[in-house]
Amino acid sequence: MTVNASLCAEVDLSVYPLTAIKKTCYKLANKCSIRIELISTDRAQITMAPLANEGVRESLMDLFFIELTDQALREQISSETEPVRRLILANAFSKSSLMGE
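-> structure tokens emitted (101 positions)
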């Protein structure tokens, strides 16, 4: 693999959480190797290198940002719906015999 085959992107950590970036990298691990480098407190540099058996260099950046947006939205939705999920769980367990009668 040559360095020229790599793609680089800077990601704003105030828009995309680091955990979403890591999940995205994991999801694309079968297509490329990815390196995350924090370049400041609010920026990360992502370097992607397609695997030797993949001919996806041109679409790799698109795949990365589609998945990154998906992971960031999942985190946001999870955070926003946590109070409702806790309420549903509390209600469900309060009506069961698990709480003791």
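The beta strands are 7-12, 32-40, 43-50.
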